[in-house]
Predict the 3D structure of the following.
Amino acid sequence: MQSEELQKNLDKAKEKLASADMLLIGTGKYLDAELGYDPFDPDSFERDFPEFKDKFGINSIMEGLNYKFPDEGSRWAFISKVAKMYRFSELNSPILENIKKLIGSRDYFIITDSMIGIFNRMGYPLDHIVEINGNLGDIQCHKPCTDNLYSIDDKVEAMLASQAECSISDDLLPKCPDCGEMMVPHISGKEFVTTDREFSAEMEYQKFMFQAYGKNFVILELGVEKLNRTIKEQFMNLVYQDMECTYITINDGDIYIKPGTRSKSIAIDSNIGDALEYLAN
Ligand SMILES: [Zn+2]
């Protein structure tokens, strides 16, 4: 019975996606996890970062990103190892291929709370992506003295090569080119600064939403947890406030649709990979 319901919803979603003019995609932590990047997972952390677990008692990447390391050398040893894993891994998942197929030549916008920067690495420009929690590939001044962003990508290999006992040499610590203070990753936290780039993306998003009125508009939400306030609640409010659209949410077991939005919503209780394989092909 449950699979009959799932099949019915998949067929309905496939039909809506096929005729969509504009596609708004929202992605959350379960998509990252299905792609193999789960910053909350203790098991993969123990496998990939045993030295940081042993020395500092850290249990996950997310815990490490928020951990108060005793010095900057250890902090950047950790960050560079995470950046290597997240920024330079192969992007060869069928999930990403299927997202590409679904976007096709449609007008699209992407909102994500992922810090991995996958969509930009797939070739989608940053003015079509709002990264709510920032991006681990960017660094900024910790003060911050300006809202300039710099890339970490050209620093990672040297930091990794100099790692010894969970630390890197002082001369590799990233310093702000504007004031000489330490840099920090550009991810959500007390030092997070909204930059011109992010402001422009927000403006593009407003424009996109304005243009969506009267169009065949589909919102596709991938792996956003039930109580997410930044992406899911925003999407459901759009649907609730009488916007003409179809809201498709895909989630494995953590599915939720707000009362009052159900006639325009399609819930697909499935892992994202299987659902997208069906929807995109
Ligand atoms: Zn500075």
